[in-house]
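Lab manual, section 2.4: Encoding a predicted structure.

Procedure: take the sequence of the chain (236 residues), apply the prediction step described in section 2.3, and record the output as structure tokens. A sample record is shown.
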Amino acid sequence: MRKTLIALTVAGVMAGCSSSQEAVPEDPALESTDEKVSYGMGLVMGQRMSNDLPNLKMEQFLQGIQHGHAGDEEQTRMSREEIQEALMAYQTQLQEQESAQAEELAKKNQEAGEQFLAENAKRDGVKTTESGLQYEILEEGDGEKPTAEDRVQVHYTGELISGEVFDSSRERGEPVTFGLNQVIPGWTEGLQLMPEGSRAKLYIPAELAYGPGGNQRIGPNETLVFDVELLEINPE
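Recorded output:
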């Protein structure tokens, strides 16, 4: 959103505005190259605006384009400074709205996660640690347990509590190797509870996962579920 607004500013939306009352035909011709390019540019800009400026006022927007293209500085309705101020105010308004929406979503996810974990803790085979991590051993291995300083090789599938898969080494067809002190706390703790060769489910509360910040594929305060196989400790 903000990048688009800045790009529009640089590209010339702020070039100026004047008063042109030329009517646009309902279905202008699309025969010449100039006509096709003009329509195509308008179509692309309109599609971008529908996403980036949902409250776009079409009458004012089209007048601004007409005035800017006319290039008559004397008839502009807003100065560049006024446009810049309006853009900054709009961006501030968007940031406040996005922040409020993120806080609301974080609260909703936190409450849903807590309810899920409370119910999940009642199931047979599910254990809860002091930190709040829940784990369930599906297949017991007979190897050693890793320490936080070890590297491990695993296969895993990560899901939201809705069941939506957001990441899976199994789908990629290749296990991953990493240091146990380089991942989220829920993984660091949970894998140390698993002997080599084990398969387990880790039910990780938000504070042991990505917290209120989330990441690109995980919302704020999401509780996560991982089906993990500990294949090897300190693989070559």
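Check your result against the sample. Residues 155 and 163 are 18 Å apart (CA to CA).
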